[in-house]
């Protein structure tokens, strides 16, 4: 099963104690309360479905749109 954008949104929302609908594609997730430890946990969970997901590229991003673009890149190369 591949990772979906809505799964990522739901996981992020849970990590910052918000409803998924409150997480916009371009919201700065660090401003919403995501910290490095929570992000590390999320990335490890996401890598269960997307083992080739690049940690470094995720860390460079600030929003769901950035992170989802990395997943789409993986899917395009598959």
Question: Overview of this structure, please?
Answer:
The protein has 78 residues and is an all-alpha fold. It has one domain (5-77): Orthogonal Bundle (Non-ribosomal Peptide Synthetase Peptidyl Carrier Protein, Chain A), CATH 1.10.1200.10. Helix content is 58%, strand content 0%. The protein has 4 helices and no strands. Helix 1 runs antiparallel to helix 2. It is globular, with a radius of gyration of 11 Å.
Identify the notable features of this structure and list them briefly:
78 residues, mainly alpha, Non-ribosomal Peptide Synthetase Peptidyl Carrier Protein, Chain A
CATH class: Mainly Alpha
Structural class, please? mainly alpha
β content, as a range? Answer: under 5%
CATH A-level architecture: Orthogonal Bundle
Total number of beta strands: 0
Tally of individual domains: 1
SSE pattern: HHHH
What is this structure's SSE topology?
Elements: H1 5-15, H2 36-49, H3 55-60, H4 64-77
Helix pairs in contact: 1-2
Nutshell version of this structure?
This protein has helices spanning 5-15, 36-49, 55-60, 64-77. It is mostly helical and 78 residues long.
